[in-house]
Amino acid sequence: MNENFREFWKCATFQEAKEYFKKSKFWMMKSGLPEMKKVAKMLAKHVVGLLNFTLFSITKAVAEGFNSKIQSLKADARSFRKASNYRTRILFYCGGLDLIPSNHKIP
Fold first, then answer.
1. Average pLDDT, rounded, for the chain
2. Which member of 7, 51, 55, 100 has the greatest number of CB atoms within 10 A?
């Protein structure tokens, strides 16, 4: 059932994903396996988010990447005297800023 549900992520449209989810949930609930019923109920609670994936195709991977970088900067921040320096460093690294101003010519 787990392997079968992976096909959900390949659904091209919202309606297709909705139908696939409905069939998968029915199959899980009728399986007679308590673990599968528990998973089906949990997925049903998050069905809006799951179906929205077909509309927007985004994940939280970018946010997790930023969080990882911020945690790394946080470890280094112990040497900062002011919290504003920590904030500046986060904005600098997560904002993709460059040290060299755009109007500065490199010799």
1. 83
2. 51
